[in-house]
Amino acid sequence: MSIKRIIPLVSLCFISIGLKGQGFEFRPAIGWGTYAMADFKDFQQYAIPDIGVNVKSVKEFPGYANFGADVLYYLNPSFGFGGTTGYYSTGARNSYADYSGSYRMDIKARAVNFGGIVSYKQEVGSNLFLGLELSSGIKLANIDIAEKLVIPSQGFDETYQFESHNWWMMPQVRISRYFFTDISFGIYAGYEYNAKSKIETRENVLHYLVGEHGPVKQDWSGTRVGVYVTIPMNNL
């Protein structure tokens, strides 16, 4: 199942769970993340072809926007637990173009997180809350590598599809404030650690992406910052 189909399904499940419970909160979020991708950056340089022109790396897995949602059940005003999901994307590009032709290689990486989360929050001011959280789970990623060469009398246009999965963990800090009766807005910051994993072809898990130093592994580790809103589900 593709990532684009998984995200709406999981979000719907979270909302459905929240509607049935007491003390549930739904937290949609939007943020920004950075991504290590050391192996992939090495592969990007290794993959520059020797075609007699100076192909450049013009994009190397930059930070990018991400989206997420949590559902938490609070046993008391301070302690809660629940489920979390998130969607991440980044990419890279090697390219060259002049009057005689062009070359381009695009690497598009997309990933979705599934996991659990535990939360502790404490009021530190009037309607102001400080929270400490730890979440962990699995990450499923899709990677597409598209390569195109256009020169007189020859060229090619190929796309290769890969996938990967690994384990992740993220501690984070949250600060929120109630601006309405039950709805709060906040900011968060954390660091997501990813265990590295091989990038396998979608057709055969025994075939995987190989670079100059062996198998290329994905690593989405990096900082995560963003904003969110907390909506109490039991009041809807």
Description:
This is Outer membrane protein beta-barrel domain-containing protein. It comes from Prolixibacter bellariivorans. The protein has 236 residues and is mostly beta strands. It has one domain: Porin. The protein is 11% helix and 64% strand. It contains two helices and 14 strands; from the N terminus they run H-E-H-E-E-E-E-E-E-E-E-E-E-E-E-E. An eight-stranded antiparallel barrel has the order 1-3-4-5-6-7-8-14. Strands 9-13 form a two-stranded antiparallel ribbon. A hairpin with a 5-residue loop joins strand 7 and strand 8. The protein is elongated.
- Secondary structure tally, helices: 2
Strand content: over 45%
Structural class: mainly beta
CATH hierarchy: architecture: Beta Barrel
Radius of gyration, taken over Cα atoms and rounded to an integer in Å: 21 Å
Count of discrete structural domains: 1
Organism: Prolixibacter bellariivorans
Protein name: Outer membrane protein beta-barrel domain-containing protein
Notable characteristics:
236 residues, mainly beta, Porin, eight-stranded antiparallel beta barrel, 2 helices, 14 strands, Outer membrane protein beta-barrel domain-containing protein
